[in-house]
Amino acid sequence: MSPGIPSTQENGGSARLYRLVRRLPGRVRHVEQISSRPAVVADLPGWLSPAVRAAVTGSGLETLWSHQARTAGLAHEGQDVVVATGTASGKSLGYLLPALTAALDGPPSGRTTVRGGTTLYLSPTKALAADQRARIDALAVPGVRAATYDGDTPTDERRWIREHAQIVLTNPDLLHHSLLPGHRQWAPFLRSLSYVVVDECHAYRGVFGAHVALVLRRLLRVAQRYGATPTVVLASATVADPEGHASALVGRPVVAVTDDGSPRAATTCVLWEPPEGADGSRRSLTAETADVVGALVRDDAQTLAFVRSRAGVEGVASQVGEGLELDRPDLVESVAAYRGGYLPEERRELERRLRSRDLMAVAATNALELGVDINGLDAVVIAGWPGRRASWWQQAGRAGREKAVDGQSAREALVVSVAADDPLDGWLLDHPDYLFGDPVEAIVMDPGNVHVLAPHVAAAAAEVPVTLDDEAWFGPGLRSVLDTLTARSILRRRPSGWYWAREDRPGDHVSLRGVGTVVSFVEGRTGRVVGTVDAAAAHSQAHTGAVHVHQGETYVVTDLDLDAATATVVRGDPGWTTTAQSVSSFDILGEESGTASGRLRLSWGAVRVRRRVTSFVRRLPGGEIIGTHALDLPEQVLTTRGVWWTMTPDLLEGAGIAEDAVPGAAHAAEHAAIGALPLLATCDRWDIGGVSTDLHPDTGLPTILVYDGYPGGAGFSARAHDTVERWWQATLEIVDGCGCRQGCPRCVQSPKCGNSNEPLDKDGAGRLLRAILAERG
Length: 777
Prior knowledge:
Elements: H1 13-23, E1 28-34, E2 41-43, H2 50-58, E3 63-65, H3 66-76, E4 81-84, H4 92-105, E5 118-122, H5 126-139, E6 146-148, H6 155-164, E7 167-170, H7 172-179, H8 187-191, E8 193-198, H9 206-225, E9 231-236, H10 242-250, E10 255-257, E11 267-272, H11 285-298, E12 303-307, H12 310-327, E13 335-338, H13 344-355, E14 361-364, E15 379-383, H14 389-396, E16 404-405, E17 408-409, E18 413-418, H15 423-430, H16 432-436, H17 450-463, H18 471-474, H19 478-487, E19 491-494, E20 497-500, E21 518-523, E22 529-534, H20 535-541, E23 547-550, E24 553-561, E25 566-571, E26 577-597, E27 600-619, E28 625-630, E29 636-647, H21 649-654, H22 662-676, E30 688-693, E31 703-708, H23 716-722, H24 724-737, H25 762-776
Parallel strand pairs: 4-9, 4-10, 5-7, 5-8, 6-7, 8-9, 11-18, 12-14, 12-15, 13-14, 15-18, 21-25
Antiparallel strand pairs: 1-11, 2-3, 16-17, 19-20, 21-22, 23-24, 24-25, 26-27, 27-28, 27-29, 29-31, 30-31
Helix pairs in contact: 3-4, 9-17, 11-12, 15-24, 17-19, 22-24, 22-25, 24-25
């Protein structure tokens, strides 16, 4: 395929692509040129407080972009609104203008308050809240008091914030665990509550999104108790249905503003395929990404590389530095890694160096996908498909963030999307229209999931007694949940409603992010914390003997204490990596939907998945296995929802799959189906899991299951069930479209397989998929 590289521009993305191709030839599979866009401006609104107007014009802004003005106007009028425009489009002014004006002039409703109208700003990350606080402080509006209130806020500052701050910046976790349970301490703030800002609301999806939706409804319910009816302003990257998603989050109608009035840099987007080696395998994603980033840095392009895993982030940063040592040692110190698990002070220092251009290359996880204010990036490198079109565009939007000049971007941007050896990446190389022609995905979120709803109803009862009128907030499933909680003596029913009936705090029983506690990596010699991992992943990433990398330093786990949530580590590189192995099985608890098509049955419902990490493998850098070591860890049990299908032996036999080939064919089809599902649902392969068997005890037949990786389900498997023909067809295209003979990471191998990708039968998977599509008709 001819890449059709566009004509170059001075210092622009096309010129950089040309030089990159000269340095690393033969990689470009597709080039998409996105034109620049001029600004559409609007006047500053007349209702602005004079002090706010003076601060805004003093910062150099005489006009607004059209979407900023429309968002601010709707919010000032009391209309719940979501602004869904591109990265770096200045969405924050849409909510800051009405919030700052309310702080000085009082709530738009005209109610008299002692401290003016207050605003509660919520973001999914501390870094983003700190960024917004800096933006408010830079405006320096006289009389406006803004403060960040999170887990790092000293105790002596918290009382002052509750009593005096007009704009409080926090996160849903603190709202759930602290502000709502202690709402009486916040009474003056809540009485004056004029606005609730929900930033980066597209991040609230799946189980996390359902939790946050219910926290927001609890907040609005408590505010109502104090006589406040705050307007909700949400900000989002581009999503398929921003109005529907925002309305689902807050439980009431929301108006969407989607016409982006900001100028956009011309952008050159490239789909990049690593070359094949002599043995036919692809060059590693880490090595290829490092070479692309290194070439761009040598070209004086400040580059941000998004890498999927923590280990990958460390590997890319390390290899970029090693490459620069050979010819540009002066640039080695300008390369860094940024990922979750770093300590707050480490992250803040990296963000400062990136903004000041002291760092020229940063490898990051999606911790920098959200709206941290980082300007002037020349290029973005996306290492592997991030799982969603929305995420890809959000990451790509980090490039070309220079200030506009005369309505046009000052510099053309470059985005290089490096394909991994993964089914979706290979499929996307052949189907660029999926990325550049189709709309972004719809967000899957279910606040009615009883596993999510029940603990929030209990928490709400502890805040203000619950009545059946609260169905307006919690939906028609409320009565059933109240009956269950009452039967379990969690709530107590009285004539005036349902009350919390226990001595402990209800919020302590639920983690908003659906992952429970975290396990800390602690250096045994010093007691220093050198990273964290979700408790659910600790069995496979923090077991005794596991190799852990943090900011380029390698550690080995010497002991995992699950009760204490700590993994003790010793510093040192043993010269190998580790991969956990596990065994899985599942029980069908109840079919909630099922259809038979001849010798095929498709089902969806409740399942219980059992998984035990049994051992780990040590591998040398070249991939050679040098040892397998047994582990004694408890079984992990997940009750969730999944989609499964059964096939009769004669259906498989007719497809040319002999009895002894069924396990390999089913296993390969399961892996490929998991890899394909993100094409249809807002998930990635780490949000879902799968199990296949040639004879399941509950069905008595060969069975393949794909399940949501969260307690109670997250809606992903339901989406798969509802679009099953499209899902199976995309899966078959991935299997058939891969040029390998035996199966590879681009088609049927899985990076998360606990059985070391054995057995796998790629040809059998294709036969199986064609058979079930034909049987389905």
